């Protein structure tokens, strides 16, 4: 994906799941970038009460408690999205469980704790177990 026009690509802990046991019909999309220390950045989208492929519009304060967030963006903006504010359009194009497979595209915005805005464009996610 691009964040404010600069490419951001997860390089470890990439994970996707469709309706995993113990969760309420959720699609999980996540990945991390950077050293496994205080500078590590983590991105995730959790879409609850899903049926499968299709387009989803997520916004903070949604009744399903779906979330899009970035952790560790920088020292001041340790969290963006989630409870600080987000809007995300997600299109799930392919999905299955056993084996887990999640393919999606997404775009939107996340507000950080210091009110900086992360504009997400060209978001693509591909996970095959």
Can you characterise this structure?
The chain has 129 residues and is an all-beta fold. The protein has one domain (2-128). Helix content is 0%, strand content 57%. The chain contains no helices and eleven strands. It has strands at residues 2-3, 6-7, 12-18, 27-33, 41-47, 54-59, 67-71, 79-81, 86-96, 101-111, 117-128. The strands form two sheets. Strands 2-1-11-10-9-6 form a six-stranded antiparallel sheet, with no helix packed on it. A five-stranded antiparallel sheet has the order 3-4-5-7-8, with no helix packed on it. A hairpin with a 7-residue loop joins strand 7 and strand 8. It is globular. The protein starts with a strand and ends with a strand. 27% of the residues are buried. The mean pLDDT is 95.
Fold blueprint:
Elements: E1 2-3, E2 6-7, E3 12-18, E4 27-33, E5 41-47, E6 54-59, E7 67-71, E8 79-81, E9 86-96, E10 101-111, E11 117-128
Antiparallel strand pairs: 1-2, 1-11, 3-4, 4-5, 5-7, 6-9, 7-8, 9-10, 10-11
The strands making up the biggest β-sheet line up spatially as 2-1-11-10-9-6
Tally of individual helices: 0
H/E order of the elements? EEEEEEEEEEE
When the domains are counted, the total is: 1
The secondary structure category is: mainly beta
Summarize the structure.
The protein is mainly beta and 129 residues long. It contains no helices and 11 strands. The strands form 2 sheets. The chain has a 6-stranded antiparallel β-sheet, with no helix packed on it. Strands 3-4-5-7-8 form a 5-stranded antiparallel β-sheet, with no helix packed on it.
């Amino acid at each position: 994906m691009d964040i404010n026009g600069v490419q951001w690509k997860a390089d470890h802990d990439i994970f996707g799941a469709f309706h995993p046991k113990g969760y309420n019909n959720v699609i999980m999309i996540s990945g991390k970038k950077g050293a496994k220390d205080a500078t590590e950045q983590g991105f995730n989208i959790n879409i609850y009460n899903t049926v499968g492929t299709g387009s989803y519009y997520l916004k903070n304060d949604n009744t399903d408690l779906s979330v899009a967030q970035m952790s560790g963006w920088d020292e001041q903006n340790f969290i963006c999205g989630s409870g600080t504010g987000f809007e995300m359009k997600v299109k799930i194009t392919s999905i299955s469980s056993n084996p887990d497979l999640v393919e999606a595209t997404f775009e939107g915005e996340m507000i950080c704790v210091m009110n900086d805005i992360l504009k997400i464009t060209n978001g693509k996610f591909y996970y095959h177990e």
